[in-house]
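Its record is quoted verbatim for completeness.
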Amino acid sequence: MMIKREWRQLLEMIKFSLGKGKAPELRVETDWGKFYRICKFHKIQSMVCPGIQKLPKEQQPPEEILKKFQEAESMEIARDAVQAFSQEELLEAFEKEGISVLPLKGILMKRFYPVTSMRMMADLDILYETGRGKEVEAVLTDLGYYCDHRDSHHDVFFRKPFMNIEMHHCMIGENSLLDAYYEDIWKRARQEEGKSHIYRLSWEDFYIFMIAHMAKHFQGGGCGIRSIVDMWLFSDRMKESLDWDYVRKELEKIELAQFERCMCDLVSVWFEEKAETEFYAQLTELLMQSGIYGTITNYNIQHVAEVDKRVWKGQIKVWMEAIFLPYKASMWDSLESVWKAADADPECDAYVIPIPYYDKNPDGTLGAVHYEGDMYPDYVPITDYKTYDIEKRKPDVIFIHNPYDECNYVTSVEPRYYSKKLANYTNCLVYIPYFVIDENRKLDQIEHYVLTSAVINADVVVVQSDKVKEKYIEILNKFYRENGREVPDFSNKNFGNWFAKILML
């Protein structure tokens, strides 16, 4: 087994885009759609886009694929600028309040790329001194952030349009050896020049933490392309200046020396023309299928295998295609949070496709047509409904918020987007109401919300609470029994973590 040509082609494109290699030799039959999905899966569209744009015109992808890369690059340039400003703003606030903090990971790694926006970063990771959690939250609240959620080792804060801050109260969770190693991290950290409360690690300790963080994700199912590129660019830049004896000694302490050597060899196989072996071909396959932070599939593969084996058995990665079909822009908020989660999922291609709708004449015929595709927020990429063939594409999941099909007396979406038709073109039709029901109303007062075309035809209906869920099920059970129809299974369908979280029915 050797590294697949499609993987090798991608690695050559990365080298070329980063200014460290020649343009890859592309075949006429290159599957650019798959190439893009792989890049999105690993969140490296902005990393490879410059290289793609430098290719001869005849070797570039089709216009629609090239546009996707360019849009991703533009989004990352904007995100990078916002993150850079927000980082400075945040660090200044912590310095002013006398809260000691230590920036981690991507914040520092970006500087090793030719252009900082080439290294996508979903959030800012910052360690803060123990016991200052309430003060940290106060600082973030004053800057317009709110706490999205908390877990065992960090609190996550968010500010529109896309600023995520992970405030860590420990370096690495879920690993006792590494937890013990990093207990005294503040003793090893040093103050930034001219600052009293902003700290940084030595480049040696930064590299060790990079390896430790990579190993954590690898153990959890894989670490993906970007981590290996980070390692390559960092070690290439710092190879003459790092105290490698110290690095190796510390890696031995935390039992990661062999892991680091293996990853170094993989870097050489990928980017420095080291000879391939079957082991590194299989390791490449595993990481290519891992995405940024690994998959549960790979986690299971690794934990079923004996720990002393160096061979991982890969499985075919399946990407999901999800489309969102709003019709009135004013109702987009019912779908937006789900779209954001789907769009952020590296395993999902998410499309927002506003559809036209008509006024209804008194006799029930269709009147004036309306299209509101230009009325959505700037950060929502719009796909023209005229260019997306649902029958041909057959997306894995379709989200709608129109409940009525032809039964609305006031408006109607274009008939080809009725729920009874969409159900034939997907494995899962999901209806999310654009309205909220008064939970105290009696069953007979909400039947007209429940017994609609979308509810009957959908595979999944998302409702506002467990109480409303119970009312829906009661009304639907009665409806199916009275009409002599089989009562469907109302259990959740799991189409990924982001999807499972929003299901109520």
Notes: Residues 293-318, 492-505 have pLDDT under 50 and may be disordered. Residues 320-502 form a domain with the Rossmann fold fold (CATH 3.40.50).
